[in-house]
Amino acid sequence: LAATNEQPRWDLAAESIVVKIRWFGIAMGYILVQTRTGLHNPSSVRAFLALGAVYAGVDLAFYRMGEVFLKRWPLFVSLMESVFIALLCYHDTGLHSPFRWYYLLSLICCAIRYRPSVAWLTFGLHTLSFLILAMELGIERAAVSDGALTLVIMAWVTWASWALSTLLKRTGARLEQLNAELEANRDELERRVAERTA
Question: Which of 5, 85, 88, 153 has its CA at a distance of 20 to 30 angstroms from the CA of residue 45?
Fold first, then answer.
């Protein structure tokens, strides 16, 4: 697929990473369900993972067609992921579920795809989701520090991901500019050589 400018190329390059992260999350989720005991409701976790696999499949199909699925509704995707991850944790083992780290995968995906403001709004949605989950399950005194650490790590990952993404976008744009200048200089040199030869 030939892109006409830098932005579509970045969108598709970022989408290729997002698709891989989503499939990693689904595969890891099934491994977590199959290899652990003590889950609150393993059948529900499997059902939610199957729903996630369908979504990842649609995302992959759009990527193969050279498009980004739900590109114009990033906060809707973030909201869906907030609810999805909270439900996985709720039906798994609660606040200590390894699925809580899926918030990090979601934040990384958002940060590399969209503007920093969208990444921070997604962080807000995920924080709200995590806090609602904590209130629903009942916060034990011992779990408060773990929950706070989870939120701090989420904020750190959001900042680090968008900072790196912004740096890569700026570097890509600068390289595009330098390439255009190089081509213009080459054309000018060829023109001068042709004039001297004539």
Answer: 153
DSSP 66-91: T--TTTT-HHHHHHHHHHHHHHHHHH
Q: Mean pLDDT in the chain?
A: 87
Q: What's the predicted TM-score (pTM) here?
A: 0.80
Q: How far apart are CA 53 and CA 39, in angstroms?
A: 20
> How far is it, in rounded angstroms, from Cα 81 to Cα 103?
8
User: Is-contact 139 72, C-beta < 8 A?
Assistant: no
Put residue 94 in one of left, alpha, beta given phi > 0 → left and psi -120 to 50 → alpha.
left
Spell out the alpha helix ranges (H) of 36-140: 42-64, 74-91, 102-113, 116-137
Dist CA 134 CA 112 (whole Å): 28
